[in-house]
Design brief:
Low-confidence stretches: none
Number of strands: 11
CATH superfamily of the largest domain: Umud Fragment, subunit A
CATH architecture of the largest domain: Ribbon
Helix content: 10-25%
Largest sheet: 9 strands, mixed
Length: 202
């Protein structure tokens, strides 16, 4: 099968997640909302590409599509380790509250889930109550959404570096950047955010 672009993969994973969660695929408008696409034509182009590459098949009707390789989306399980603020800093608990099922291709070794509190990342469509899937690593690239431990408190923000300086930025202008200065509080990256769950997967 042909390789997918990042946006096509995002569309496919959303379709797979909706089928997994509720038993039927999303509407085109739901796909637009999830991916931040303004026109239904933009979402349809992604579905057409997925069909052309053999990942889905479509028929007439608002939700008439199915996955062609369903086994690619069998379940994996990731632990929810606690909650992380998108806003004021708050301690993140290091014990698993529960384990939830996710598409199998999300279940790479070491990944975990944190529940988001606050509204500082609404510009990136990360809302109160969302679950973020975190890939643990000790470094992050410019502009990536990361989970960072500042002192003993965790937060989810975008990471930006300039020379020897770095800061964590919200995507809500109501929140100021958090500078990461030498001699300031110890900062440790817990990982980067690689996926978002709007509802708990059953």
């Amino acid at each position: 099968m042909e390789k997918l672009t990042e946006r096509q993969r995002e569309a496919l994973e959303f379709v797979a997640r909706m089928i997994e969660e509720r038993g039927y695929p999303p509407s085109v408008r739901e796909l637009c909302e999830e991916m931040g696409i303004s026109s239904t034509r933009g979402a349809l182009r992604h579905l057409e590409a997925l069909e052309r590459k053999g990942y889905i098949s479509r028929a007439s009707g608002a939700r008439a599509l199915r996955l062609e390789e369903r086994e690619r989306y069998s379940k994996a399980y990731l632990p929810i380790l606690g909650e992380v603020p998108a806003g004021p800093l708050r301690y993140v608990f290091e014990e698993a509250e529960e384990w939830i099922s996710v598409p199998a291709n999300w279940g790479k070794e070491g990944r975990f889930i944190l529940r988001v509190r606050g509204d500082s990342m609404i510009g990136d469509h990360i809302q109160e109550g969302d679950l973020v899937v975190v890939d643990p690593q000790l470094s992050g690239n410019q502009g990536e959404i990361v989970v960072a431990l500042v002192g003993e408190e965790a937060t989810v923000k975008r990471l930006y570096r300039k020379g020897n300086e770095a800061e964590l930025r919200a995507s809500n202008p109501a929140y100021p950047p958090i500078p990461l200065k030498e001699g300031g509080e110890e900062v440790r990256l817990l990982g980067r955010v690689v996926a978002l769950l709007r509802e708990k997967v059953i």
